[in-house]
Write a structure and sequence with these properties.
alpha+beta, Helix Hairpins, D-amino Acid Aminotransferase, Chain A, domain 1, OB fold (Dihydrolipoamide Acetyltransferase, E2P), 6 domains, 5-stranded mixed sheet, 37% helix, binds 2-(butylsulfanyl)adenosine
């Protein structure tokens, strides 16, 4: 190819990738299948490898580049990043309004621009000649840390602006979605690493990784809410800033949740609305921010100390409650990890009754000095996980003792071990009853073998009754065994057997995940299946083969090799195949439904999870709520409000039959 056409081709690939990134990460409206996207990306990588002189810093291939840093360098903000005055009381909206009016010497109603107070990490993106040249944390407001390499890995952040702008500093918040936070913690715990207390800490921890490839895996998102220094930008109203962001393809969420409110009463209504929907949001917010909309008035109002006079934050009352720790029990997980859990007097935290809270590990117990009998404050971290925030030492009863996780496994009494780099101690006995039970629960779980009628309670019973010890034992259960159990009728026994039978036909990735090999999570299992394509190939993998798999390091390789070379493991696999497990070859995703978003509602003949898989394997996407971006509503029987909303928005409605034809 002549140089000119290579350049053109590279340019076109970058444009296409950027367009798809924007559709996927900002608009939540994928336009092609993952497979097709990967092909574009590969083609670009190959061309750039052949023509290194054509690699530019704004190429999508440069999002994750460079070696891990040894530390972050300090960098000054050209204009200080100030903070907002905070309050917890809606009364203060009125006080704020009075102060603004008094300062401006006016009686007229002020137009306020109201927005979400995102609970993440403030960041400044510096664009020079439309190129992203730096990303700096807020730090102390004057000087922050240069985290450019890490911020570039966030795909929603443009590396180059859509229009020519000599200088623009964009300010906003980096946040982690609640679902990604939960998944990250699951992964951390699987790997024996420290879990994050809430999505904000997880977002901040992810940005402060010295190795950008780790940040890249964390699914962070960014929303803009302000600007620092700029050239050639003139806006009269804060609201216009969001129009500018949209034009430049800088992510923001203004059109969904922001509102112009005239006068404090409207602001109070806005506050109440946002407070009522905060739990439905995908990310944490801790209040609202109220800004005077007119930029002229903002300039007139100016600053007092380190806060603008033209803006204020009204926070939500934190959902905290006081209760007593009645006991601390130690749970043993599938890998043998010991986790202390506080059993508490039931207490309401923001509308949810909380009885248990994980205490994570010994270090955490020591740090907070949590003891049985203590009065404690609990909240729900990231709206989901109950957590002990602090001990009320003054209320501590007499004669309590510091809590120590036992040195023996609480289930099988084997001496526990603690590896140096790990935070939890572990029971090393593979035959420990707790480990067997948890391993079986993992095996049967939805994302593994998906034996949906085999709930945790039944697994406990089967092990207690000596019916099941190994994975393959599940497939040897007879109806007469089941009928001999208490609370098991003819119909549930049959349903359970059917569900076990159905699980025999399984995707390679799900099967590998089900085996519960240490450190092999769902994504790693998928990568392994993609690479090896069959169980035989996987079981025959060498160290070199394994190291070629995406995202696999030496620790994982060691764990996999150790497992697949073990005689017991081999025997168990043979037994599973003998009882009739059939492994499907991984499919290369087709793309008939690329870019189409579905919402599913009502009762349908198939399970939701299966329908979702079918849609996704054809390149489509399933979302939980209807919006203008939805393409189809698949409506079963007794469809409710979603059906009304779809009609209202003129969205195509599919019956089960229409869907099957599709
Ligand atoms: S505006 C001069 N808008 O709150 C005012 N801040 O205490 C600049 N924050 O450090 C801030 N959401 O991290 C603004 N919609 C929003 C915000 C927001 C969250 C955070 C930001 C800042 C802190 C201010």
């Amino acid at each position: 190819m002549p140089k000119g056409s290579v350049e053109k081709k590279i340019h076109s690939l970058r444009e296409q990738i950027h367009k798809h990134d924007y559709a996927y990460y900002v608009e939540d409206r994928p336009t092609i299948s993952d497979y097709e996207y990967d092909q574009l990306y590969k083609e670009l990588e190959e061309l750039e490898a052949k023509h290194p002189d054509l690699v530019t810093p704004d190429s999508p291939t440069q999002r994750v580049s460079g070696k891990p840093a040894d530390k972050f360098h300090k960098k000054e903000h050209r204009i200080a990043m100030l903070s907002l005055q905070n309050s917890f009381d809606t009364e203060d909206i009125y006080t704020f309004d009075e102060r603004v009016k008094k300062f401006l010497a006016t009686d007229e109603e002020i137009e306020y621009y109201c927005e979400l107070k995102l609970d993440g990490l403030a960041i400044e993106l510096v664009y020079e000649d439309s190129q992203l040249v730096a990303a700096i944390t807020r730090g102390d407001g004057i000087t922050g840390e240069d985290v450019t390499q890490n911020v570039k890995t966030i795909k929603a952040i443009p590396l180059r602006l859509k229009e020519n702008i000599p200088l623009l500093e964009v300010r906003g918040e980096i946040v982690m979605r609640k679902q990604d936070f939960l998944a990250l913690n699951e992964w951390q715990s699987e790997k024996g690493l420290n879990e994050f207390a809430n999505p904000r800490n997880a977002a901040a921890g992810s940005i402060r990784q010295l190795d950008p490839s780790i940040t890249a895996r964390r699914n962070l998102i960014f929303y803009a809410y302000g600007v620092g220094l700029s050239e050639n930008i003139s806006i009269q109203q804060h609201s216009e800033l969001y129009e500018l962001f949209r034009k430049l393809q800088i992510p923001e969420i203004a059109n969904k949740y922001n509102q112009i409110c005239k006068g404090p009463a409207k602001v109070e209504e806005y506050y109440k609305w946002i407070e009522s929907i905060r739990h439905d949001l995908q990310f944490d917010i801790d209040g609202i921010v109220v800004k005077v909309n007119s930029i002229d008035l903002q300039n007139e109002l100016g600053f007092v100390a380190r806060n603008p006079r033209w803006a204020t934050a009204v926070k939500f009352t934190p959902e905290r409650s006081e209760t007593t720790i009645q006991d601390i029990v130690v749970q043993v997980g599938r890998t043998g990890a010991l986790t202390p859990v506080a059993v508490m007097e039931p207490v309401d935290v923001g509308g949810v009754t909380v009885t248990h809270a994980t205490l994570h590990n010994q270090d955490e117990i020591d740090r907070k000095d949590i003891r049985i009998g203590d009065r404690v404050v609990v909240h729900r971290a990231g709206d989901v996980i109950p957590e002990v925030v602090e001990v009320l030492i003054k209320k501590r009863p007499k004669k309590t003792e510091a809590f120590q996780i036992p040195k023996q496994c609480p289930i099988c009494q084997t001496e526990t071990i603690k590896e140096e780099e790990e935070v939890k101690s572990r029971c090393p006995n593979p035959l420990c009853e707790a480990r067997i039970k948890e391993g079986l629960k993992h095996f049967a779980s939805r994302r593994a073998m998906n034996i949906d009628k085999l709930g945790d309670k039944w697994i406990d019973t089967f092990v207690d009754k000596d019916l099941v010890h190994t994975f393959s034992d599940i497939y040897k259960i007879k109806k007469s065994d089941l009928l001999a159990l208490e609370r098991m009728g003819e119909k549930s026994a049959q349903n359970l057997l059917d569900s076990i039978q159905q699980s025999k036909n399984v995707d390679l990735a799900n099967f590998i995940f089900a085996l519960g090999i240490r450190f092999v999570g769902e994504q790693t299992a998928k990568n392994l299946a993609q690479k090896f394509q069959s169980l035989e190939m996987f079981l025959g993998a060498s160290e070199e083969d394994l190291l070629e798999v995406e995202d696999i390091g030496p620790k994982l390789v060691r764990s996999i090799l150790q497992t697949i070379s073990s005689k017991n493991f081999r025997q168990e696999i043979e037994e599973l195949l003998r009882v009739g497990i059939e492994i499907k070859k991984p499919e290369i995703a087709s793309s008939e439904l690329a870019g189409k978003t579905f919402v599913i509602t009502g009762t349908l003949p198939e399970e939701r999870g299966k329908i979702k898989k079918q849609i996704e394997s054809r390149g489509g996407k399933v979302s939980s709520s209807i919006s203008k971006k939805t393409h189809y509503l698949l409506a079963g029987e007794n469809a409710g409000s979603k059906l009304d909303k779809a009609k209202e928005l003129n969205i195509s409605i599919l019956s089960w039959e229409d869907f099957l034809k599709m």
